[in-house]
Design a protein that fits this description.
globular, disulfide bond, Rossmann fold, EC 1.20.4.4, 139 residues, single chain, alpha/beta, 5 helices, Arsenate reductase
Length: 139
């Protein structure tokens, strides 16, 4: 079973949403996980905007990068420059992709503007994983 690892700085927003979409869009043939350079806890707004897509990530937990899992992956996706720059070295057979997405939790604005920023990043992640799914299916 192929393994994919979504990585960002704190494993609280972007990589958590990517894990949720990965499990949903890539299906049971893929083992999907996420982690961070640090652990910042699961962001409740990420949970909220994923629920709008009928994807429940509320039981996911913020995790540090597991080097054993990382070394056994087929694909590692970094979702921010920090994760790309600080991700441990991987063997050359592990494919690495970088999706430079803004951190929605760092967005300054009122509650509605923040919510919209989370939705925007969520939608970018959904689109990227949909494309990835089609590539892996040979479409």
């Amino acid at each position: 079973m192929p393994q994919i690892y979504f990585l960002c700085t704190g494993n609280s927003c972007r990589s958590q949403m990517a894990e949720g979409f990965g499990k949903t869009l890539l299906g049971p043939d893929w083992q999907v996980a996420s982690a961070g350079i640090e652990t910042h806890g699961l962001n409740p707004i990420a949970v909220q905007v994923m629920a709008e897509k009928d994807i429940d990530i509320s039981t996911q937990q913020s995790q540090l990068i597991d080097n054993d899992y990382l070394q056994s992956c087929d694909l590692v996706v970094t979702l921010c420059g920090d994760a790309r720059d600080k991700c441990p070295m991987t063997p050359p057979h592990i494919q690495r992709i970088h999706w430079p997405l803004p951190d929605p939790a760092a967005f300054d604005g009122d509650d509605e503007a923040k919510l919209n920023q989370f939705r925007s990043v969520r939608d970018q992640i959904e689109t990227a994983i949909s494309h990835l799914s089609k590539q892996k299916d040979g479409q």
